[in-house]
Amino acid sequence: MGFGGPYLGILTAKKQYVRNMPGRIVGRTEDNNGKQAYVLTLSAREQHIRREKAKSNVCTNQGLCALMATVYLSGLGKTGLRRVSEICHSRSEYAKERLSRLEGVEIRFSSPTFNEFVVQLEADSEKVTEKLLEEKIVAGIQLEKFYPELENCILLTFTETNSAEDVDTLCEALKHAVK
């Protein structure tokens, strides 16, 4: 994930265990004018302890990830993350329903999903994804490269950035690409 770079994980812990957690903790406070402010409240890493002898930049990258997440989450507001999750799930379910009606496309697994799922194509998945790319549609990850038993399977993911129209466009292009 991230080509070996940093990634963000959000977890919770009781106050007594906070200092045992890896990474950085972002806290909320107020500035001098009484406005909300977010600050790094805990970060126990070698860059801060022995900065001149530090061997990696992972903490700087972690800090950037923490800052981006803080800005994004604070922009979403109190119920925003829940709403984004609902949109992701809704788009995924809409896509599943639409794709399941296409000839030559089958939903591979029946287990519940959040925002991604696997489709199996009757056509060669590499050729299909190339055709879709010509239409400026990045169709997902060809799973056969990583899991040989999932021949002609593609992992599709849908987020809040995908509209229902995007799903419709994918379905229309896929209908022609699998022929």
Q: Roughly what is the average pLDDT, rounded to an integer?
A: 85
How are the strands ordered across the major sheet?
3-4-6-5
Quaternary structure: single chain
The assigned structural class equals: alpha+beta
CATH architecture of the largest domain: Alpha-Beta Complex
Can you summarize the main beta sheet?
4 strands, antiparallel
% residues in beta strands: 15-25%
CATH fold descriptor of the largest domain: Aspartate Aminotransferase, domain 1
Radius of gyration: 21 Å
CATH class of the largest domain: Alpha Beta
What string, H for helix and E for strand, traces the elements in order?
Answer: EEHHHEEHEEH
Unreliable runs, pLDDT <50, ≥5 residues? none
Q: Helix amount, in percent?
A: 25-40%
Identify the CATH homologous superfamily of the largest domain: Aspartate Aminotransferase, domain 1
> What is the terminal separation in angstroms?
33 Å
H/I helix tally: 5
How many individual β-strands?
6
Integer count of domains: 2
Shape descriptor = elongated
Which labels suit this protein?
single chain; 179 residues; Aspartate Aminotransferase, domain 1; 2 domains; 6 strands; elongated
Outline the structure in words.
This protein has 179 residues and is of the alpha+beta class. The protein folds into two domains: 2-77, no CATH class; 81-177, Alpha-Beta Complex (Aspartate Aminotransferase, domain 1). It is 38% helix and 17% strand. It has five helices and six strands, in the order E-E-H-H-H-E-E-H-E-E-H. It has helices at 46-49, 58-76, 80-100, 125-134, 164-177, and strands spanning 24-30, 36-43, 105-107, 116-121, 141-142, 153-157. It has a four-stranded antiparallel sheet, with helices on one face. It has a two-stranded antiparallel sheet with strand order 1-2. Helix 3 runs parallel beside helix 5 and helix 4 (125-134) packs across helix 5. It starts with 23 loop residues before the first strand and ends with a helix.
